[in-house]
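Good morning,

Both structures are done.
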Amino acid sequence: MTTIRESDLIDSIADALQYVSYYHPPDFIRAMASAWEREESPGAKDAMAQILVNSRMAAVGHRPICQDTGTANVFMQIGAGARLEISRPLQEVVDDAVRRAYRFDANPLRASVVIDPLGVRKNSGDNTPAMLHVEMVGGDKVSVHVSAKGGGSENKAKFAVLNPSASVSDWVVQTVETLGAGWCPPGILGIGVGGSSDRAMLLAKQSLNDPIDMAELRRRGPGDRTEELRLEIYERVNALGIGAQGLGGVTTVLDVKIRSFPTHAASLPVGLIPNCAATRHVHFTLDGSGPAALTPPDLGDWPEILLEKAGANSRRVDLDTLDDATVASFTPGETLLLNGTLFTGRDAAHKRMVEILDNGGELPVDLRGRAIYYVGPVDAVGDEVIGPAGPTTSTRMDRFTDRILGATGLRLMIGKAERGPEAIEAIVRHKAAYLIAVGGAAYLVSKAIREAEAVAFEDLGMEAIYRLRVEDMPVTVAVDSSGNSIHKSGPARWRRVPQPA
């Protein structure tokens, strides 16, 4: 019987979580590079270029690809002939590995998990507990898939029980069309079909760890009904024109993965979970000989892409001298390079600011004529000013937008993905504007931040308000002061009739 030592299991999972924080899977990089080469939409092509440059920077610098270093997902298949040499619950063992990985001094990862989800939602401080799934299988080895799943894409997970005669393809395409860009496309769609409600969602999550092979499948053609469905959904979703970051383009998904399981005759459960542009996972096998050895990818897998700091289509904006005329001159889809003072603030900070205002208090920061960035950065290391600092999904701030704009005189908001009708109405009412940074380019964005100082709500950890000084931080105008949105006009322009799979 093969014996797997507890220390080897902990070492391997901890190493894997560090590994996926800064290495994209090579198949994902190749698929993204190919999509970048094919992309026809200038905005989407630029967004993909930023994602690829960021990915290579993270791989070289061993710093997180995305500021949302995700929940730790661990899928273990334990062979019947293998024995885990542990004397405590497996969850505790895995959580020790997560704790070690997320508190690693040379590359600390952002703790995003909160305990007591129905109560105070206090951050656990070390990203525990892990989302652990265990299966007993044949053999005498232990197979482990480790992934880090960001909240932006996880929040877009969907489930439905369809009639057995219904079209899975129709439901997936119609659902994806409603997701917006908060899941940071282009990415992967994981689909689970059959089983029960819980099994369908687990199948969808597990499928995201499968190798990307859509290019090969398109070349050789489908060999069964599952492959036919993958091709059909891939073509139909990309024909929606959503594109990278929702800016409009020819590629929204790089691959569609499907797993299925027998189900009740009266049911057709379907789970859908998207994976974002920060797709991060790795697999290893333990055979009793020691911890897993994870081989770094070849840097040759990344294409040579050089970003122009300030091209002909980019305009520098001084955040310290914003006025009505400047904000009114922004047009959807325009690229700006931001310079000057920028404040940060996410969900918890917005909630606290509104509570202070409602109670007649004075805010600890003066936002009049200023810009706020929806971000929760990773802790800095070494001589860094700030850790990876990419945008978070902006719709979560929609409920606070009118109150904050009206009470503070805030002029600009920066995040990722679209805004809802409530926020757009507030933007028009207060003659503000909304800009987006590229989700999945957190390390690249952090290099534009020259100074960072926590100035309020420091007890909120990564959700504290920081004052930043930025130089040539690249953003795209998403909603102008008249309420025109690139997330509506972009996809509408690139939408097309899908071709037969």
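Second structure follows.
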Amino acid sequence: MTDYIRKRVVVTGVGAITPIGNTPAEYWQGLLSGRNGIDYITHFDASSHDCRIAGEVKNFDPHDYLERKEAKRMDRFSQFGVAAAKQALADAKLVINELNAEQIGVIIGSGVGGIKVMEDQQTVYLNRGPDRCSPFMIPMMIANMAAGLTAIHTGAKGPNNCTVTACAAGSNAIGDAFRLIQGGYAQAMICGGCEAAVTPLSVAGFAACKALSFRNDDPAHACRPFDRDRDGFVMGEGAGILILEELQHALSRGAHIYGEIVGYAMTCDAYHITSPVPGGEGAARAIQLALKDAGLTPEHVTYINAHGTSTPANDSNETSAIKKALGEYAYKIAVSSTKSMTGHLLGGSGGIEAVATVLAIANDHIPPTINLENPDSECDLDYVPHTSRAQKIEVALSNSFGFGGHNVTLVFKKY
């Protein structure tokens, strides 16, 4: 794509269902106050599990957004996605009608889709036989259904897709939506990520591959990115959605603009199914290519919303990647992990973290990394520990990395 045909793309709406708040305003206040969203699992009896903690969404009522019959035919991940999409459209004051429906699309990523429905139906199958499985099992389970249902419930008839790149899925969705508007294939896109994987099998599986924190005696401090005592990530759930619009389309209707998305890049480590390549080479290339795509240099960057999972491998490698990509200037940039408060939403993480990044730019305030009590010697950047920071932000990056070696960086800018 050559530069002269690229259209400018802005963010005009946000939606968020998270472990620290079920609206964008609640989520943002939770981030600024350093609210902990992690506690003991209540969705199921986790007493026999090695990991018994998670960042669960609290007090979410799908009937605030959906008719009872419709909600019953959706897995929780789709309920989150549709709810956050409706919030974002309302925030953007973007009305979809027969005149613009074909120019508004949806891309919502999910790492695992409807795993709760799959587990429940497996139990039905084993106990009651194959003819008792729900006819809604497949359409409730498949990962693209959040995107499909969002279109059904909003009327968006434009490009529709679902990215499934593990923990990079939400960021890939936003980046791909950005490209579609940039290239003139849509005027607006509903995009982000959602996940609801706090289930018995999912938690057992992640625990088995030693990815999770086992700090069951202290859930409030279990997620501690960049801390030397970190021992794994804490699973979260929820959804984060952005409304992206072509600039002139947004201006023509007097839309409020939170910021501009100006760069996107994705790379692969091509190294290992779960571990990042030592030194963060693949992540560093994603950061460098995203800045190149944006036409910016390291000196333009004020803030990085890190992937920051609180796993031993990720945090040191991401730190190395940031230093490799940005050189000595990396030490002048604020870096924080909002996962310290929400846990890791897997495919939904890029969605809520993009919302956090955009709100940071719009409000000139950087969310903190909580629980950073004993910094790892290999993690020596400015991670904004404990307390949020008022600081003018011109350019911010959002990093997401996923199993399989997927690396994604998004670049947002003050409009």
